Automatic annotation (TrEMBL):
GO terms for cellular component: cytosol. This is Fructose-1,6-bisphosphatase class 1. Mg(2+) 2 binds at residues 112, 115, 278. Mg(2+) 1 binds at residues 90, 112, 114. It comes from Azospira oryzae (strain ATCC BAA-33 / DSM 13638 / PS) (Dechlorosoma suillum). Homotetramer. The keyword Ligase does not apply.
Length: 332
């Protein structure tokens, strides 16, 4: 049986009028950049890419060399094709305009070039997350143009650099998973229409923040920890990779609940995870796979962003658990 590559999937999607040629090209270019990032990560200490870059980003985080390298790879790959109006990234203070020497397109690309960078130096899975919006007509692609609710995303995806390199993509037609064939150099469709089970016995949260959580999260996690003997009547397992891409991918594969809730440590900033580079693309993917994503109080995709680097609390994954956590918030 012939294999469906990412290129073929996208060409067929264009033929079915789900995307146009520019959006197809955009996704191909992002996938190509992810291949380059995957190769860089794969070399590790052999090519001197591990460790600190010696700089801080706008988030106030110390940048790793690979945060900077991955950001550069994505910028360079996407600058010249004529498909973009501008790009924005976790690692850049302001949107990156397309240089004057290149034609400009209608799309806005946002990315978290390297997600889970605390895992880089210990050789644990990391990823790249991306999201695509259309630049509003007649609007300059300044920061304002990026401030659109997640429902406006035309495509979103992530690459997971784990034991295999995967690309998980949605163009609003379900969620599909492509595995990088390293010999051939192409992404091959390996799972179609991923679905997140509505129920689960697994949750993901950084338990070390427990004393900082709000009451509804204390209540919810407390009930999970009671196991069989408690109100839930079953035992729950816990996982926390600390790379959102890896934690979300597990949920897409076998269900689960992921939470980075509001806590008194991050409340001032609005939460830990970034709305435009992390929460929105992951929420679109999760919803497209039959799951749900809220802040604990509201659907994430409905939020009207007010800042490029805005942060939000995130509760996502198996629908019935997300609904329970959200109900606990709304009751309190
Ligand atoms: P990034 O590496 O892009 O800055 O993102 C890290 C994020 C996310 O991937 C993960 O879920 C979370 O931070 C982990 O945070 P803790 O270290 O607080 O657990
Ligand atoms: Mn970071
Ligand atoms: Mn991240
Ligand atoms: Mn990052």
């Amino acid at each position: 049986m012939s294999r469906t590559t990412l290129s073929r999937y996208l060409i067929e999607a264009q033929r079915d009028n789900h995307i146009n040629a520019d959006l197809r090209f955009l996704i191909e270019v992002v996938a190509r950049a992810c291949k380059a990032i995957s190769i860089s990560i794969g070399k590790g200490a052999l090519s001197g890419v591990l460790g600190e870059a010696g700089s801080d980003n706008v988030q106030g985080e110390a940048q790793k060399k690979l945060d900077v390298i991955s950001n550069e790879i994505l910028l360079e790959a996407n600058e010249w094709g004529g498909h973009l109006a501008a790009m924005a990234s976790e690692e850049m203070d302001h949107p990156h305009p397309i240089p004057h020497r290149y034609p400009k397109g209608e799309y806005l690309l946002m990315f978290d070039p390297l997600d889970g960078s605390s895992n880089i130096d210990i050789n644990v899975s990391v990823g790249t997350i991306f999201s695509v919006l259309r630049c509003p007509e007649g609007m300059e692609p300044t920061e304002q143009a990026f401030l659109q609710p997640g429902t406006q995303q035309l495509a979103a995806g992530y690459a997971l650099y784990g034991p295999n390199t995967l690309l998980v993509l949605t163009i609003g037609q379900g969620v599909h998973c492509f595995t990088l064939d390293r010999e051939v150099g192409s992404f091959v469709l390996t799972q179609e229409n991923l679905r997140i089970p509505e129920d689960t016995k697994e949750f993901a949260i950084n338990m070390s923040n427990q004393r900082f959580w709000e009451a509804p999260v204390q209540r919810y996690v407390g009930e999970l920890l009671q196991g069989k003997e408690g109100v839930r009547g079953k035992d729950f397992n816990m996982r926390w990779v600390a790379s959102m891409v890896a934690d979300v991918h597990r949920i897409l594969t076998r269900g689960g609940l992921f939470m980075y809730p509001l806590d008194s440590k991050t409340a001032e900033k609005g939460g830990k995870l970034r709305l435009l580079y992390e929460a929105n693309p992951m929420s679109l993917i999760v919803e497209q796979a039959g799951g749900a994503a809220t802040t604990g109080r509201q659907r994430i995709l409905d939020l009207q962003p007010t800042q490029l680097h805005q942060r939000v609390p995130v509760v996502l994954g198996s629908k019935n658990e997300v609904e329970r956590v959200t109900a606990y918030h709304l009751e309190s």
